[in-house]
Amino acid sequence: MLKFISSIGAALTLLIATGAQAEEGPATLPYPEVTIFKAAKIITMEPGFPEARYVATADGIILGLGQTLEELEAWTRDRTVTVDRQFSRQILMPGFVEPHVHPMQTIMMLPIPFISPEPWDLPGKTYPAARGKAQYEQRLREEMAKSEDALFITWGHHKLFHGDMDRAALDRIAPDRPVVIWQRSFHEIIANSKALTLLGIGEEAAFTAAFSKPNIDPGHADYASGIIHETALFNGIEMLRPYLFSPAKVQQGLADMRQMMLENGVTTSADLAFGGFGGPEMESALFKSLYDQPTTPSRILAIPVAPLVTGDPNVWLKDMKAKYDSPKFFFSNRIKLFADGAFFAQYMQMNPPGYSDGHEGKWLTEPEELLKQTERFWDAGWNLHTHVNGDKGLDVVLDITQQLAVRNGQNIIIEHLGYSTEAQNRRIGEMGLYVSAQPNYIRILGDAYAKTGMGPDRAAQMSRLGSLERKGVPLGLHSDFNMAPIDPLYLAWVASNRITLDGNVKAPKERLSLDKALRAITIEAAQVIGLDDMVGSIATGKKADFTVLDRDPYVGGAAKLREVEVRGVVFEGIWFPAE
């Protein structure tokens, strides 16, 4: 009885104390300062609440949405409120998501001249298209004349547009100057004799020794032709490092990459080859010098390449997060794997009948080794992003996937998916896989590959994305810069129109719907990199990231997506104009 009375007394004491506390005054409201953005229309990409006129933000996140200011009273009452009406005639969409870029590659490429089959509009410079051997060689001589670099490097050559190129041809064009040409795929470089000498591999014995490494296929570095590609490429890049990564070029590349992201509305991206160019420590320090600045209106997820993650993957991840994680540069349990070779170089592995000229594709990772890498990271609980381009390569990846133990909370993402069959797309849908696709293949290569290598039917059905939409596959669109511009609206236009450089429409049934194309640069792009709880749509609790457009992309339709202009971005509630 005494114990019971004591309990009542304690309860009464608690009630009295609570009541007294309540009488002291109201609890402090969260988010005392609120900014509300008004727009002509807010496209949320949320099916349950697809449109709004007002969005309330504070401390970098979204508090709520409404059609009127009055509807947001729950977040305005007793607070200091700023109503920003500068977008009253413009459209807000979620900040665009770029699910597959390579910042180190971007930094390397932006300072060098582009001579490619298509025109390029880059920060501070434009490059016209070059078609045919004569035009390519003329542009090459013009660009060399502008440069005083000890080693001249250019990017964009493709033999189907510009004719064959090797060491002898480059010696003829530039007999007295070191020159390196980067093939349009990025997976191949061609050096003349002066360049090989400058790089210390001018003699055959030295060349052979430089590429005699355990992970390099001997056939991927050829002294006679001066061609270095695929598994030998990163060794070649290491030799080029002093000419690619001078302090001035690195700073220019960082500034241009920031501007390119801003001009095209990208607020979130993922690095799908983190560590592959300079190692995890160097790249972390470099990227943090850009992304951790308040003047950079974007964030990036670092996804490392498999061979760099040594020891226990989860110990490696814990250590990297402890040393380098920040709100705008961060890691997660995701890994990049490689199956077959480059699509732009016709190095992808193709099932019978193969290539019309009889050449063979290449493996970046032999299937047996790919199985080991896949199982290692899957068993550690990681999500897998596997680069694969041809249908033979895809068969290998899908067969490996079927051998994995079913686990909850892990995803497998097919990266690029240059050519797949309808049967393979059915497997992708049935297995619950995601796809991060490169739509620019059909734009640049649809006509050329119909004539050489693939034939008209397979070439027309590259980037078979309409099929994936019909099967309900979550899908992101990526640039893999510089395989395509870092320009999500351009990628959406390509995927929803399928018009080649020569103006031909290829396999119209494989077009994405306009809505799916826009989802593939927002919410579904976020989903394929595991960030859809944070970005990709305009919803309460998510980051206050908005891309500001001059018009509604749904009104003009798929055909007019390229006419939509990005005015800038709101990143975590702060406005950054594009100009």
From TrEMBL:
Signal peptide residue numbers: 1-22
Keywords assigned: Signal
SUPFAM superfamilies: Composite domain of metallo-dependent hydrolases, Metallo-dependent hydrolases
Keyword Signal: yes
Family matches, as Pfam families: Amidohydro_3 (PF07969)
InterPro entries tied to this protein: Amidohydro_3, Metal-dep_hydrolase_composite, Metal_Hydrolase
Domain of life the protein comes from: Bacteria
Amidohydrolase domain boundaries: 91-573
The keyword Signal appears for this protein: yes
Matching Gene3D superfamilies: 3.10.310.70, Metal-dependent hydrolases, Urease, subunit C, domain 1
Protein name (Swiss-Prot/TrEMBL): Amidohydrolase family protein
Source species: Parasphingorhabdus flavimaris
